[in-house]
Specification:
Layout: H1 2-13, E1 34-47, E2 55-63, E3 67-68, E4 71-81, E5 90-99, E6 102-105, E7 108-109, E8 112-113, E9 116-117, H2 120-127, E10 152-163, E11 167-169, E12 175-185, E13 188-201
Antiparallel strand pairs: 1-3, 1-11, 1-13, 2-4, 4-10, 5-6, 5-9, 5-12, 7-8, 12-13
Helix pairs in contact: 1-2
């Protein structure tokens, strides 16, 4: 499950999420041009499944704050699952940007923004071909990177990652963002996590 969570985080930030209910104004965007992401800060998270989801994020720590890009990132996390997560796993991500006192939902463009990923398992298979070892540090700590994810507890101790330069589309401007990610199988919700962060690009 941590492997799937890392993949979703990459998709959300494009370092690789409507579902909130109600109507949200759509932000008009320009497809041309890009910006270089330089800092990510103000990171916060919470579960949003009302304690009923079988998969729960128990802890998540990201340092430093802000994160400089390119640069190094230290992550620790723990997930508990009472149910095996098998293919197909559907992920619905809603990405919103603060505009004054309003939160504006960003559309899905080129697999970035408020997108639906109908098969997270296939995304993982594309990132890490089946039959090849899971990348470090997942391999060292016995964290799977392919479906199915068996029920149980998974823990990633503080581990360092190197972040390369990241190009963002021009419509992902500086500001505060929040993401809601819901993972389901066959219409049954398995996990729900909310993330908040700020972006600074140049």
């Amino acid at each position: 499950m941590l492997g799937a969570g890392l993949a979703l985080a990459l998709c959300a930030l494009q370092l690789c999420p409507a579902a909130l209910g109600g109507s949200h104004p759509q932000l008009l965007v320009e497809r041309s041009g890009s910006r270089r992401l330089s800092k990510v800060g103000g990171f916060a998270w919470e579960n949003c499944g009302d304690g009923k989801d079988p998969v729960v994020l128990q802890s998540l720590s990201v340092a430093p704050d802000p994160i400089s890009i390119p640069g190094s990132l230290r992550v620790s996390a723990a997930v508990k699952s009472s149910k095996t997560m098998a293919s197909p796993l559907k992920a619905v991500l809603v990405v919103e940007k603060a505009l004054g006192d309003l939160w504006i939902q960003l559309p899905c463009i080129d697999q970035m923004g408020s997108c639906t990923y109908n098969d997270v398992c296939a995304i993982l298979d594309n990132l890490i071909p089946p039959g090849t070892p899971c990348p470090e540090p997942l391999l060292t700590y016995g964290i799977p990177c392919h479906c199915p994810f068996k029920a149980g507890s998974y823990s990633l101790p503080a581990s360092d990652f190197i972040l390369p330069d990241v190009e963002l589309p021009s419509w992902m401007t500086n500001g505060n963002y929040r993401v809601r990610a819901v993972v389901s199988n066959g219409g049954d919700e398995l996990a729900c996590v909310k993330l908040a962060f700020s972006l600074q690009s140049q």
